[in-house]
Every structure is written in structure tokens, then in C-alpha cells.
Amino acid sequence: MFASFSLPDVASVSRRTVLGALVVGVGGLVGCLLLSASLVGVGFCIGLGMGIFNFRLIQRSVVKVGQREEENRRRPLALNTMGRLTVISVIALGLLFASFDLGVGVMAGLAIFQALLLVNVARSMLKMGSSGVTGVLGADGSGPGFGDPTDGAATVDATVVDATVVDAIEGPVSPIDDAGEGV
Fold this sequence. Notes:
By secondary structure, the chain is mostly helical. It contains 5 helices and 2 strands; from the N terminus they run αααααββ.
């Protein structure tokens, strides 16, 4: 599905999502403070922070798994994802039971982060042009799962992870540093 999604695209999606989350977090906190719902605002920022942290861990996990020689790359990604989602769920639900306002803010922050990520991924896919979109959607019968990918693009095995599509790239992967640049 993301065979034509290059590493610079991933870096720009990451950068736009994190910057968008920071802007939305500050705006949400200020708005909640003006509405006298300070715990909701703090929880909102915590939820956005947890979303950013989870996204960074996903990127690190995909790079590590992509560098392995093993054939089965889905299992380590699935186990890492299950562990991360368990920890995030326990924290979010624990905060919800400890303080309803704080917990609702955390849940909202997590949801908004996922929405920002989805919008940024969709934006990058649309910027690929009409051939990229129809190829991804499979509308012309040439998308993923339709024939042999012999166009020279990297073979990608997409795994859906907590509303984030993570690509386990087969072959050499260059890690991305904190600035979003390849190293």
C-alpha cells in the first residue's frame, strides 16, 4: 500500500504531525484554561504527548525490525504494538478512573493525535499525484495485491497498528534521527 511512500515522506509526515500536535496542544490547553477546565487541558496535553511518544516508538520499532534478517517480521511488530497499546490503555484508563476530567482529556488528546496523523498521511498520499493515489487505492488494478511489484519500488508489508499504518520495509532501512533526516 505504501510502496511509493519514501523515507522523506515519512519524515515530513512525522514532522507535520508533531508540530500540529504541539500547536493543537497549546491551543487546547489555553481554551480549557479559559473555560475553567484545567484538568481537561492538562489531560489533553498528556494524551497528545503519549501519542507522540507512541509514534516515535513505532518508528524505532519498524527500523529495528526492518534491519533483521528474519523472514517473519510481523510477529515482533505485533508484540511491540500490543505492549505499547497495553501500557497506553492502562495509563489512560487509570487516569480516567482517578480523575474523570483528566482522563477525558487524555482520551481526547490520544484521539486528536491519531486524527492529525491520519490527515497528514492522507495529505502526503494525495501529494503523490493521481498515479500514486490510484495505485494505492487499487482503482486501476495495479495497486498492492494486484500482480507482481516489479517497478523497482521497495516491497512493503503494511501492518495496521492502533490507527497508524506502519510499514515493515523488507530490505535495508536507514534510521531516521530526531530531526527527521536519514543517517
